[in-house]
């Protein structure tokens, strides 16, 4: 059809949520530009980037990515970004228990106020920092399973599992019937 969401070309609004410093902006930069900038700037408010991927069945998925700021003073703005989002990616840092607790707060928030059919992913970033790990993989898997979420550990620094994260989300999108 003429619309953006025919059966072969999907367009989805995706929002990243999570504590400040967990690596949300670095994940987006790695996915969209293939880069990692250790001196990247703190996100103010929110930023927008898009990236299109092709799946094996030749479907294309255009991700319209809203990367939010994690700071408390922007928390009131978050619903503007997750409302109407088809996908929410909740990110924590595997070396920070606080950030994992904050992720659980975001999951509850999405369940209360997000779209009822929102697809949620739980992402443990900074998986390259194994020696500083504070959040056991099993704890995060249990949390994800309990909340019907897809779970993956990533590293924006090494690029580990970054493309896989978005590919797995793409596979879970409902396909409009043509
Ligand atoms: P945001 O506030 O969630 O957007 O976090 P940023 O993307 O700004 O990243 C915060 C800090 O964590 C920066 O200093 C990054 O260089 C660092 N960082 C982000 N991702 C990774 C990662 O996968 N591994 C490591 N070791 N550091 C990371
Ligand atoms: Mg940021």
From TrEMBL:
GO molecular function: GTP binding; GTPase activity
Keywords noted in UniProt: Nucleotide-binding
Alphabetical list of InterPro entries matching this protein: P-loop_NTPase, Small_GTP-bd, Small_GTPase
Domain of life: Eukaryota
Pfam families reported for this sequence: Ras
Record field: transmembrane: none
NCBIfam families on file: small_GTP
Name of the protein described by the UniProt record: Uncharacterized protein
């Amino acid at each position: 059809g003429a619309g953006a969401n025919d059966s072969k070309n999907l367009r989805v609004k995706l929002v990243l949520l999570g504590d400040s410093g967990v690596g949300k902006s670095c994940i987006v930069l790695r996915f969209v530009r293939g880069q990692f900038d250790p001196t990247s700037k703190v996100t103010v408010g929110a930023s927008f980037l898009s990236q299109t991927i092709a799946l094996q069945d030749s479907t294309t998925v255009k991700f319209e990515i809203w990367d939010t700021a994690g700071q408390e003073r922007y928390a009131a703005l978050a619903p503007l970004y997750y409302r109407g989002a088809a996908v929410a990616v909740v990110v924590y840092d595997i070396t920070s228990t606080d950030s994992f607790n904050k992720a659980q707060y975001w999951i509850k928030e999405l369940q209360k106020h997000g779209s009822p059919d929102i697809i949620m992913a739980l992402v443990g970033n900074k998986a390259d920092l194994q020696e500083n790990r504070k959040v056991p993989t099993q704890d995060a898997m249990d949390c994800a399973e309990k909340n019907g979420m897809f779970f993956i550990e990533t590293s924006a620094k090494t690029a580990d599992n970054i493309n896989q994260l978005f590919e797995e989300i793409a596979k879970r999108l409902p396909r409009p019937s043509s």
